[in-house]
Amino acid sequence: MKTVSPAEAIAIIPDGATLMIGGFMGVGTPERLIDELVRQGKRNLTVIANDTALPGRGIGKLVDAGLVSRTIASHIGLNPETQKQMIAGKMTVDLIPQGTLIERIRAGGYGLGGVLTPTGVGTIVEEGKQKVQVNGKTYLVETALHAQFALIEAFLADYLGNLSYVLTARNFNPVIAMAADTTIVTAEHIVPVGLIAPDHVVTPAPLVDYLVTNG
Fold first, then answer.
1. pTM for this prediction
2. Whose CA is closest to 12, among 182, 160, 208?
3. 48: which residues sit within 8 A by CB, 6+ positions away?
């Protein structure tokens, strides 16, 4: 694990990268990394996340700046700018049921090929997807999702990179930390090793590649 500034962390990310970004409507989203992506003007990004938040907040800042070419999310209903860009053909949007989305990400983190789910059977969601029968019930084969980079926000990080989260800000963060080649973390507080009790560590240090300095 390396300690870097926000600028150094984002400099690692090339144009055209695939990013998983934590958060739920901006809660638990690494805002400093989002701001730095905008400042450095990283373009043609594919973003995998629960949502695109709101204009001017979280992932919405990337949308406002026109940096996202493709979004894979469970909903975009509260961000009219995302909808506008989708309708105008400036952004491709793949909408995935929320439970299916997080399980596909989890599968990517666990090294699985995908998951079986009945969600979407008999709807437009099943178009182009393999179907299998298990004990007489039909399931869709939903393939695993993986990214080049995971951008996550924790409440506590220690000097080794062990992480813990607070309340609902935990959301997608621990799961996407496992499903990317490189995991970049911001934390509200960076503390000495041992201050986070072992049973409170949610994301262990070996999963963290870069910890962004505070201040």
1. 0.95
2. 182
3. 18, 19, 20, 21, 72, 73, 105, 145, 147, 176
